[in-house]
Amino acid sequence: MDLLRHLRLFVTVADELHFSRAAERLGMAQPPLSQAIRKLEKELGAELFDRSQRGIRLSVAGEALLEEAHDLLAREKRLRGLARRAAAGDIGTLRAGVPPDTTAAVLSALLAACAEHTPGLLVDLREVTTEEQVRLLSSGGLDVGLVHHPVDATELRLGPETSLDLGVVLPRPSPLARLPEVPLGALSGHDLVLFPRAHAPGWYDRILDVCRAEGFVPGRLRHASNPEFLLAIVTAGHGVAFDQGPVARKEPRVAWRPLAGRPLTSRVSGAWPAGRGAHPAARRFAELAADVLARDHTAAPRSAGAPRSPDDSPGDSPDDSPRPWSVVYG
After folding, report:
1. How far, in Å, CA of 172 to CA of 307, rounded?
2. pLDDT at 312 over 70
3. Which residues contact 82 (CB under 8 A, 6 or more apart)?
C-alpha cells in the first residue's frame, strides 16, 4: 500500500467533506476514491469518517489523523526538495583543493562567489599541491581542485582554463629593476627560487625548459613552498623568482617586472573526477574559479593617477602597480 498517496487522498476528502467534490479536485472518479479511503481505514484499523445520508464528517480517529497527515505530507515535500537541491549541488559540502600559492584575495573572492551563487553549499577549501590533487581526485579524497598545467588529466574533467602571465621578482637595488620589462635571458647567472617540483611537476619542468630556451640558466635552484620565504630569499639577494605580481607587491624591498615577450604563462583550471560519481557542484566551482582568477589578474595594474611609493622615482616603478605599503612607508 502506498501510504503517502492514500494520506493525500484522505486529506483532500477531509478538506472537502464531500467525496464527489474531492474526486473532482483530484481528477479521478468517485468510486476508486471511496475504495482507497476504505482501504486506508482497514490498514489503520479505524474509520476516519462518519458517514450518513446527510453527508460525511471526520470521526474522532479522522480528527486525530488529519494534523499528523498534514505534517507528514509537508515533511515529504521538504524531503523531495532537499533531494533535488542536493542532486543539483545546491547544498551539502564540496571538498575543494587549491594550490599553496593561491593568494588570500583570490581565496576570499572565490568563497564570496560560491556563497553568492549557492548559499546552501559549504565549500571546504584545502591547500593541496597539483600533484596531490590529482591523486586525491582519483581516489575520492577531493571533489574538485584547481590545478596547474600541464597535468595528467586522464581520469579528470577540466573546466575553463585561465592563463596568467608571470613576471620576475627582483631585489629592489638590482639594475634590472629599472627596466620596464626584463628579458628572460638577462637573468642568466642568477639563482632561481622555485616551488618544489613535487608540487606541480609538469609546470616546474615547463618553467625550466622555457628558461633554458630563452638563455636563462640559473646559477643554482632554490626551493620555497611559502611565498613569504620566497620573498625573504629574493630580498636577501640570494636569487630571483617568478610571480604574477600580487605577492611581490606586498614587499617594498623587492620589485616586480613583466618578462619581455611574456614567455612564461601559468595555466590554471578546475578539475574534477570523470564519471557519474562527480559532485554536482564541481563544474560550477571550476567556472567560478576561472572567473575569479581572470578578474584578479586583470585588476592587478594600478590605474592612472594612483599614488607612488616615495622611493619610486620616474623609471623606478615602470609596472605602475598598487603598493599598499606606500601608506606605511610614507
Report:
1. 18
2. no
3. 91
Domain segments of the chain as ranges: 3-87, 92-162+268-298, 167-263
Strand-pair category, 192-194 with 156-165: unpaired
Predicted local distance difference test score (pLDDT) of residue 69: 94
- C-alpha to C-alpha distance for 322 and 202, rounded to whole angstroms: 32
Q: Looking at residues 204-208, what average pLDDT do you find?
A: 96
DSSP code of 256?
E
* Whether CATH 1.10.10.60 fits 167-263: no
Q: Is 195 helix (H, G, I), strand (E, B) or coil?
A: coil
Q: CATH class for domain 3-87?
A: mainly alpha
The pair phi, psi for residue 271, each rounded to 5°, is: -140, 145
Q: If one looks up domain 92-162+268-298 in CATH, what number appears?
A: 3.40.190.10
Neighbour tally for 180: CB within 10 Å? 10
pTM of the predicted model, to two decimals? 0.74
User: At a CB cut-off of 8 Å and minimum separation 6, what does 60 contact?
Assistant: none
Instruction: Please write the tens of the pLDDT for every residue from 3-29.
Output: 999 999 999 999 999 999 999 999 999
Helix or strand (DSSP H, E) at 73 = helix 60-87
In this prediction, residues 170-182 reach a mean pLDDT of: 95
- Which of 293, 296, 290, 295 is CA-nearest to residue 160? 290
Q: What angle do CA 258, 262, 263 make, to 5 degrees?
A: 125
Alpha-carbon torsion (298, 299, 305, 307), positive or negative: negative
Does residue 322 carry a pLDDT above 60?
no
CA–chain centroid gap for 130, Å, is 15
Q: What does the alpha-carbon distance between residue 132 and residue 151 come to, in Å, rounded to a whole number?
A: 11
- How far apart, in whole angstroms, are the C-alpha atoms of residue 230 and residue 226? 6
Residue 151 contacts residue 130 (beta carbons within 8 Å): yes
Are 67 and 9 a contacting pair, CB within 8 Å? no
Instruction: Classify the C-alpha dihedral 255-261-263-268 as positive or negative.
Output: positive
